[in-house]
Amino acid sequence: MYKLVIIDDEKEQVEGVMKIIDWAQHEITICGTADNGEKGLALIEATLPDIGIIDIKMPLLGGLEMLEAVNKRGINLQSIILSGYDDFYFAQKAIELQTTNYLLKPCRPEQILQSVLKAKNLISTEKKRSAVLQSHYVLNNVVQFAIDYIKANYRNNLSLQVIADQVNYSPSYLSFL
Predict the structure, then answer these.
(1) DSSP assignment of 95-163, as one string?
(2) What pLDDT is attached to residue 175?
(3) Which residues of the chain have pLDDT under 50?
């Protein structure tokens, strides 16, 4: 399940987003809501959500300022900005903060859902990429261990089988690596 937070000072907007869309059908759970940027920042720090639907103008701390704080804390969050302002500055700032989408209020539930699904796909792609990089990293270590073993034991009677036994791989797979 992907975790979603909704941070907006318009209670009707929050309730609408929560109730109109069947989030569970899309493997998404709402892990909290907040009605201002300060509470939103605390919520994000506490729940570490994957996706945030965030209003641009809120009391105490605006959405863009809140996202800057999230980024400074190193929290990875796909954000979707909701704004009642068709203002180039806000849109430009949202792009700088690498938001997934910038939606103008009032927005249809389909727009919100499509934006969240886009964010979910970006997260999924990044997780797959990270897994591939991690696998290239048991494998590079395995090869390095095998090379180090050979260097340390080259005077002994070495075979591919002996080295493969040291790294717990089959000789053919170690040879492939």
Answers:
(1) HHTT-SEEEESS--HHHHHHHHHHHHHHHHHHHHHHHHHHHH--HHHHHHHHHHHHHHHTTS---HHHH
(2) 86
(3) none
Q: Which residues contact 49 (CB under 8 A, 6 or more apart)?
A: 3, 4, 5, 31, 32, 43, 77
Distance CA 76, CA 68 (A): 12
Q: Which amino acid appears at position 106 of this protein?
A: P
The pLDDT of residue 142: 87
What pLDDT is stored for residue 52 in this prediction?
97
At 119 the pLDDT is 96
Nearest to 14 by CA among 49, 62, 52: 52
Nearest alpha-carbon partner for 161 in 145, 149, 172:
172
CA dist 76 and 18 (Å) reads 22
Please state the pTM of the whole predicted model.
0.77
Q: Quote the CA–CA distance of 121 and 103 in Å, as a whole number.
A: 18
| Assigned token pair, 154 | 């080259």
Q: Could you tell me the CA-to-CA distances from 139 to 58, 65, 167 in Å, in that order?
A: 48, 42, 10
pLDDT at position 22, please? 95
